[in-house]
């Protein structure tokens, strides 16, 4: 086993030694949070791999462990600290570099280095690019980098170490200017900044040339995308990406209802590769709660956009995010959320109990919905949605749908798993391995969270 030796650290000037150092370095990245974090981890992995470091699949087998963090809810922070406890115990028995990066790193900065002496470095979401230099320069000393930059920091597509070779994440913007009253993201990821249009196109072409079948464009609010040089907006981006040969399915996340325009809906309808699927976070079905959340739309505005989408794309698959127990949420306001779930009939939802976060304006409101009530409301939302999903999924039994096979099912290696255009999980039997291929699947049964079936034909 190779252990990192501090004596090799004065090596920045000597590229040969630098090569040896990185060549012997095994790293592991543990990711908490959303797809943006997953893509950041892929980029961080790429920065290290470019220098020759090797990605390890086990914590125990690694010299460098990077924890990419999420600060959206208190619970995600708690999970991080319990994970760091485990790493601290590991570090007692071996030489190990531990780095904490991402939103909690930005939020707790120096505190993190003090709070957990096992942590060697802390990097905010805008400070990954110099990671290799930083590791070399500061070995043996604790350090942090948390500076914001207004400029986009490009990591060339060929340096991204991707988890999948079928479906790729492509970040198009970072940060957020919306300041929803409950949300910490504008404080951890900073203000909006947009990736230059040509860089996005270049990455998608690179992915197409490398056999990728699906891409997901990512950002906290992709609908507000605007290229600062050409002025091209998100719908223009969708149209241009749609015209790149090779990529067959295009998705994007997240959309903000207030910035979702008719032109984006038209680009979706017209773009034959753009999946008729949209994640449109509602948060609450009550206009008064939405106002307190500073969401910038009412229940009626939201429903109007849903109508527009369904008029244009009757089979569109919709998903959403819901927060229950926001400060002051009355039973009547909560019932409006349940009503909207019945009305819209989402394919899937992500639902959360309100979690008070530092720096947010909702922190100044009284968190007056008792924990037990929040808990009960969350159960009610999830139970209702489960029934609605089951009903929706049952209506698909007997239909043949197109599925992108993503590999063997993790739970049962005898069957394959993939997604349909609506982003539903489809587990299916197939006499041959169809990983990376599109295949027609006959749906034979379902649960609330997935569809099951068998290949309808196979050539
Ligand atoms: N930018 C996206 C949007 O506007 O929908 C989502 C960003 S956030 C990482 C993902 C989801 O976490 C939000 O849509 C919201 O439902 C939930 N969330 C954010 N802050 C929260 C909080 N303080 N308590 C509970 N849920 C929260
Ligand atoms: Fe947070 Fe609102 Fe920005 Fe989404 S749009 S990241 S919920 S502030």
Please characterize this protein's 3D structure.
Helices cover 34% and strands 21% of the residues. Helix 8 runs parallel beside helix 9, helix 9 runs parallel beside helix 11 and helix 12 packs parallel to helix 13. The N terminus is likely disordered. It starts with 14 loop residues before the first helix and ends with a strand. Strand 1, helix 2 and strand 2 form a beta-alpha-beta unit. It is globular and about 60 Å long. The protein is α/β, with parallel strands linked by helices. The longest helix is centred in the C-terminal third of the chain and has 24 residues. The structure holds S-adenosylmethionine and iron/sulfur cluster. S-adenosylmethionine (SAM) binds next to strand 13.
Shape descriptor reads: globular
Our estimate of the beta-strand percent is 15-25%
Radius of gyration: 23 Å
Task: Report the major sheet.
Answer: 6 strands, parallel
Instruction: Please report the number of helical segments.
Output: 13
What ions, cofactors and ligands are bound? Answer: S-adenosylmethionine, iron/sulfur cluster
Distance between the termini: 47 Å
Which percent bin holds the helix content? 25-40%
Low-pLDDT stretches are 1-13
Class inferred from helices and paired strands: alpha/beta
The overall strand count is 19
Give the mean pLDDT: 92
Order of strands, widest sheet: 2-1-3-4-5-6
